[in-house]
């Protein structure tokens, strides 16, 4: 069975991947600043659950199969890229909304289920997440292919993933940070839109290159 040091190695490797800036972490931070702590935590739970889906794919061995299945991976990348481009459009459109309309939209957007599903779809629509999982698992799984070791590694990464999203939700929902966001909301939304657009175009380019 896998030892504690190997689990710590896997957990640290996954932490580096999970905490690094990307569409998921950027969207979590933006939502925390604009919608507050509770919505951000629900959204982050959705992100982590979407990540868990790819974790199951990775530890079940389907990750390697998926990587070698050119056409299936290409379709997933196209779908993920199109979804990210849609998020880019939504973020850019939000940057054009005046303050009064934005406040009204905030009052109307009360469905936690909606925010959970947004987070879940964002992470589950990005097939590159399985590559991150496989990279982290490879750091400490040498010679540990039994079910118990795989389960412990999966749970370790998931714990790290949930903690990272909770951290983003808590830090960026601090009152001072939220007030700063309100002062430069349009620029933040446009930066977020640019990040989503670049990530979406990157996925589409990767799909066309069949890599």
Properties at a glance:
globular; 211 residues; mainly alpha
Structural overview:
The chain has a domain of 141 residues. 85% of the residues lie in helices and 0% in strands. It contains eleven helices and no strands. By secondary structure, it is mostly helical.
Structural shape: globular
Q: Compute the gyration radius: what is it?
A: 18 Å
How much is the average pLDDT? Answer: 79
Query: pLDDT under 50 segments (min length 5)?
Result: none
How many helices in DSSP terms?
11
The termini sit apart by 34 Å
Tell me the quaternary state: single chain
Order of helices and strands: HHHHHHHHHHH
Topology:
Elements: H1 4-19, H2 23-35, H3 37-59, H4 62-68, H5 70-95, H6 99-108, H7 112-124, H8 128-138, H9 147-172, H10 175-183, H11 185-209
Brief write-up:
The chain is mostly helical.
């Amino acid at each position: 069975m896998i030892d504690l040091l190997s689990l710590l190695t896997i957990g640290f490797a996954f932490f580096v991947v999970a905490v690094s800036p990307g569409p998921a972490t950027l969207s979590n931070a933006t939502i925390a600043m604009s919608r507050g702590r509770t919505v951000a935590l629900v959204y982050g739970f959705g992100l982590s659950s979407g990540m868990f889906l790819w974790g199951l794919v990775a530890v079940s061995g389907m990750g390697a199969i998926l990587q070698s299945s050119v056409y299936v991976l290409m379709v997933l990348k196209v779908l993920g890229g199109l979804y990210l481009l849609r998020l880019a459009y939504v973020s850019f459109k939000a940057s054009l909304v005046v303050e009064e309309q934005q406040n009204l939209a905030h009052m109307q957007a009360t469905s936690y289920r909606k925010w959970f599903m947004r987070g879940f779809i964002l992470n589950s629509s990005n097939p590159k997440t399985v590559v991150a999982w496989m990279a982290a698992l490879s750091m400490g799984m040498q010679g540990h292919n039994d079910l118990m070791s795989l389960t412990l590694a999966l749970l370790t990464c998931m714990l790290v993933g949930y903690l990272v999203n909770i951290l983003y939700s808590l830090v960026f929902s601090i009152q001072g940070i939220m007030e700063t966001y309100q002062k430069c909301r349009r620029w933040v939304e446009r930066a977020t839109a640019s990040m989503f657009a670049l990530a979406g175009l990157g996925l589409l380019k990767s799909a066309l290159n069949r890599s």
